Every structure is written in structure tokens, then in C-alpha cells.
Amino acid sequence: MLDNNAIYHDYAVKQIENLISIDSPTGYHYNVITYLQEELERMGFEVRTLRKGGVIANLGGEGNPLMMMAHVDTLGAFVHYIKGDGRLAISNGTLNQNNIETENVRILTRDKKIYEGTIQLTNASVHVNPDINEERKFTNLEVVLDEDVRNKEDVEKLGINPGDFIMVEPRFRITDSGYIKSRFLDDKASSGILLAIAKYVSEHKGCLKRNVQIFFTVHEEVGHGAACGITDEIEDILAIDMGCVGENLTCTERQVSICAKDGRGAYHFEMVNELIDVAKKNSLDYAIDIYPFYGSDTAAAITAGRDVRHALIGSGVYASHGYERTHKEGVKNTFELALHYII
Predict the structure, then answer these.
(1) Which pLDDT does position 1 carry in this prediction?
(2) I want to staple 304 with a disulfide (CB 3.0 to 4.6 A). Which of 69, 93, 133, 227 is the partner?
(3) Nearest alpha-carbon partner for 260 in 334, 310, 319
(4) Each residue of 88-117: pLDDT tens digit?
């Protein structure tokens, strides 16, 4: 079965690339939502969207409704104010100041114009700044626009204002050895996998052993992605998010991670065991881990009062909230675990 599903593994990887190419920092999800809606409708599924953003599709099947979810909002920042010299001060959204220096960015204005620039240390030249090794903070990082601007008025004439989005370029690439490197694999890697699940179900009518719905959330990075949109009939929720790779964890980028507990607490004992049993039965390469500084869409749903069992799986991802890395094998193992849990 694993080899027979190669077309879906490849489709997942291609969709990961497609989704990452669409800027969607938390708060600006419109283009990625349209893409998801059109892709699911091409598969023949009826789609509904939420007022605050989010895409839900019912894949079919009968009884014991399960909702599988992934989020498509990513890290980002905002223009705080325009400096006197035409540089842009940064109001952080969810970025890490320690790993964004020298990244290329796009500025999205309220009238949807796009301007390019680079995040730099204030006075970034080594040959000029005696304090070049100072601690990086959002107060000493700025956006240098790739426009001929010399003062605040020049920038304002472009239509750039406080509150405009700063969108970091992801730098997506796949190595010959199968590693996938990019910003925003959290959580567009899992979103690509979820699209591949939908494609499989659309092409294998009657394969589901229960009712399955899928939910692409936004606002997960700020904590309320799945706080609405989960209806009362849903019994189980399965977040497909990034699996953590790092010190004192067993998961690698080539595995699917099954989370037993994160920073919000334990996942549902029986549901986690069901996922482990499916992984063993299908000879998948998996790990069980605790993520100490982590929360998923399931926490938003539980906090909002949903009476559901909840669990979390995902491809192993290294360097979370930075320039992240996973592997095609991790994508494959995650797809297979999610698929065999529902068929």
C-alpha cells in the first residue's frame, strides 16, 4: 500500500510547495483560502468557509464523525511606523527576531500593492557600526525598502502605512536527498498532506469507515484557529501539525510524530493509542514524543467547549519557527498514518 500510494505522496509534496508560495501571515488568509476552496471543489467536495477565515469540507462516510485539521496561517509581522529616513519599524506578529535578519520580505499595503525589501539591523554595515554584534531586537531591526525612498514622505507616497503586512519569503527547496527546506512548513506541510487525503478519498469512493471532515484553519498561530467551526456532531478531532525535532525528542524529519502531551497538557489516551496501533499495523516509521513549548488547534477547540476526543500527529520538523526542515519520508509516513486511521 505504501508504494501504491506514491502518487499521493508526490501530490502532497507538490501541494506543500504550492501552499508555501502563497503568502498567508496570520490575518491575511484570503488568497490561500481561495486556493484551497478551488482545489477541493475540483475534487468534487462541497466546501463551506467561515466568516473569520477557514475552509471545511465533508469527505463523506457514515457515523462517528471525525474532523482532521491543519492550519494555513503562518508567521508574520507588520509595519509599526515609518521612520524619518524611510526605513520601516517592525511590529512583531509571530516572528523570531533571532532568525529573520537579512531575510527578503514583501510589504502588502491596504490597497494590495506589493513592495520588496529586506530585514536588516539598524546601521547594518560592519565597516560603519561599532556595535554590529549587539543583541537583535525588534527595536533595532528594520525593513529597508527596495525603492528610492529617503524620508517618511517618500514612503507614504507609495501608499505604505502602519499596519501593512510584512511577509517573509519562505525560500522553499527540495534537496536531492529528499529533504524539504522552507519557512512555514508549520503548518503548510500538513496542509498539503490533508489535501492529499482529500484527493485519495475522492478517487476511492466508499473507502471511509466513518464520517470524515477536514478543516483548514487560520489564526492558529495566535491561538484561536479552531475555536469555532467544529459542529456538535463531531466526536473526534485530529490535528495534523508539525512534529517537533530537537533535544530530548526521539522524532526525526523522516518520521511521523505522535504527540502524547504538549504545553497545554495530555492528548486523549485512547485516541493516541489508536494512532499508535495503526502505525504499528502498517509498519510506519513513527515516534511518540512530548512537545514542551507547543499548542495546537485542539487546545482552541477544547477551550471553546467542544466535547471531543483529541490527538495530534505530524511530520518531523526541525528548527520550528525558523528556516524549517522535514523530509519526503516524513510526509509519506504522516499521510499513511492519517489515511489508515480513516479507511
Answers:
(1) 55
(2) 227
(3) 310
(4) 999 999 999 999 999 999 999 999 999 999
Task: Check if the beta carbon of residue 256 is closer than 8 Å to that of residue 286.
Answer: yes
Residue 66: φ, ψ to 5°? -120, 135
pTM: 0.97
C-alpha cell at 97: 527576531
Beta strands in 170-280 (DSSP E): 173-174, 179-182, 212-217, 236-240, 243-245, 256-262, 265-266
How far apart CA 281 and CA 5 sit, in angstroms, is: 17
Residue among 39, 103, 142, 220 flagged as catalytic:
220
- Average pLDDT over every residue of 326-341: 98
- Residue 172: left (phi > 0), alpha (psi -120 to 50), or beta? beta
Which residues, 6+ apart, have CB-to-CB distance to 135 below 8 Å? none
Q: Is 220 a catalytic residue?
A: yes
Write down the mean pLDDT value for the chain.
97
Please give the Cα distance from 322 to 263 (Å, whole number).
19
Nearest to 123 by CA among 133, 114, 113: 133
Residue count of the chain, please give it: 343
CA angle (259, 327, 335) in 5-degree steps: 55
DSSP β-bridge partners for residue 118 = 104, 144
Instruction: Give the mean model confidence (pLDDT) for residues 323-336.
Output: 98
**What pLDDT, in 10s, does the model give residues 30-77?**
999 999 999 999 999 999 999 999 999 999 999 999 999 999 999 999
Largest CA distance in the chain: 68
